[in-house]
């Protein structure tokens, strides 16, 4: 089993739709969790951290489920500009305290 | 403030040649990471440094790869000799203090093509 797994997609949704991605991790001792966004041929950039109680930033909501070892990202009212790859990042996934990236989920928002 | 600076942005070379990729982290950041990204394998951590000291190089694929950080403002990743399977985008990232606080700042990447 891979340390951090994501459905690669692509998720193809119309503008205004709500879309959700999940990410599972294998190490129950993982400490912290993040979502990064990567535009085509660009570098990854931090989108948001994921807190135990869940957190929201505008149209984006992140949730953590430690019991089932997954994190989720919900995007409401999708915009064309949300089209990107969303990378799940887990610290401590491999047993050491370093960030491990999932392979990413591709989102395409169309008019 | 300047972000993480990588060079070259693009490199095309022939199999067997030496490749050197360079990175200047954000001033004051004490962690530096080298990642490799391919379609097949995603982002893989190759090596990371803390205060210029290599901490974990278990991701370095083989002896052909080496990385150095002679000072806090400069790191290199060298491939010698290069092979076509090394073709990928190589990212350098830096971070401040504790890794659990999350944010890695990435450079724009070096896109390597080995023919």
H/E element order of chain A = EEEEEEEEEEE
Q: Identify low-pLDDT runs of chain B.
A: none
- Output the structural class of chain B: mainly beta
Amino- and carboxy-terminal Cα gap of chain A: 37 Å
User: What's the story with the biggest beta sheet of chain A?
Assistant: 6 strands, mixed
Give the helix proportion of chain B (percent range). under 10%
Radius of gyration of chain B: 13 Å
Count every helix of chain A, treating DSSP H or I runs of 4 or more residues as helices. Answer: 0
* Nearest-integer average pLDDT of chain A: 91
**What class do helices, strands and sheet pairing of chain A give?**
mainly beta
Q: Strand-residue fraction of chain B?
A: over 45%
Shape of chain B: globular
What is the arithmetic mean of pLDDT of chain B? 93
The count of strands of chain B amounts to 11
Element-level helix/strand string of chain B: EEEEEEEEEEE
Helix content of chain A: under 10%
């Amino acid at each position: 089993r891979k340390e951090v797994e994501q459905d690669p997609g692509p998720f193809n949704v119309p503008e205004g739709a709500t879309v959700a991605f999940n990410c599972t991790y294998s190490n129950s001792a993982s400490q912290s969790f993040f979502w990064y966004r990567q535009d085509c041929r660009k570098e990854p950039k931090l989108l948001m951290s994921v807190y135990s109680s869940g957190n929201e930033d505008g149209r984006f909501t992140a949730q953590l489920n430690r019991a089932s070892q997954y994190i989720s990202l919900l995007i409401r009212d999708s915009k064309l500009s949300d089209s990107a790859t969303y990378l799940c990042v887990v610290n401590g996934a491999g047993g050491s305290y370093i960030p491990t990236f999932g392979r990413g989920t591709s989102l395409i928002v169309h008019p | 403030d300047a972000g993480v600076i990588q060079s070259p942005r693009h490199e095309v070379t022939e199999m067997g040649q030496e490749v050197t990729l360079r990175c200047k982290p954000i001033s004051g950041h004490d962690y530096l990471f080298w990642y490799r990204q391919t379609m097949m394998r995603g982002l893989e951590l190759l090596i990371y440094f803390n205060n210029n000291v290599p901490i974990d190089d278990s991701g370095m694929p083989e002896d052909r790869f080496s990385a150095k950080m002679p000072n806090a403002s400069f790191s290199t990743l060298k491939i010698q000799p290069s092979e076509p399977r090394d073709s990928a985008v190589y990212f350098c990232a830096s971070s401040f203090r504790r890794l659990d606080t999350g944010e890695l700042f990435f450079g724009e990447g070096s896109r390597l093509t080995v023919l």
